[in-house]
Amino acid sequence: MVSKQGIVILFKLLNFGLLLGIMQYLWRKYGKPYMVDQLAQQREEHDGMKRTHTVLLQEKKSIARINRIEEKERSQLKEQLQLWRHAIEQERETVNHEREIRQKALKKRIIDQVQCVEKHQQYDELYKRALHEVRAQLERQYAESAAQKQFLATMFKRMDKNA
């Protein structure tokens, strides 16, 4: 006969087997699909992150390329700005040099005009003085006769007109 202890062990094994069967059933019915869904969800998130990472890497490369292009353009603009500044400086120097030349020419012209005016004033003064001396000498020579006085008057009128 089977002892009581054997029956207890048998029922314990049966209970354990039944418990394992229920756990396996619950695992297959609820646990495994849940875990598969979770795993699939995590894979999708992981794949999404990979795609996002790939897109971000492409954007990074694109931004780096754009930055290189903009850096080249910035360098070209700096060079053009330097050339422009140099050209402006040369133009400024040229304008200053031309201004100095014009000022020197203007000063020379002013000096020449002043000298010309002084010579003209001297000429007028000498002409008047010479005219006065000629008049005085002619009056002394021709002071006695009336015809001579009329000749002198006509001559003085002509001289005054020319003066």
List the helices and strands and how they pair.
Layout: H1 4-141, H2 146-162
Helix pairs in contact: 1-2
Rounded to the nearest angstrom, the distance between the terminal CA atoms is 178 Å
Strand content: under 5%
Give a quick account of the main beta sheet: strands, pairing sense, barrel closure. none
* Overall radius of gyration: 63 Å
Number of domains: 1
Q: What are the secondary-structure elements, in order, as H or E?
A: HH
Silhouette: rod-shaped
Instruction: State the share of residues found in helices, binned by percent.
Output: over 70%
What is the helix tally?
Answer: 2
Mean pLDDT: 88
Description of the structure:
The chain is mostly helical. The chain has one domain (4-162). Helices cover 95% and strands 0% of the residues. It has helices spanning 4-141, 146-162. Helix 1 packs antiparallel against helix 2. The longest helix is centred in the middle third of the chain and has 138 residues, at 4-141. The termini are far apart. The mean pLDDT is 88.
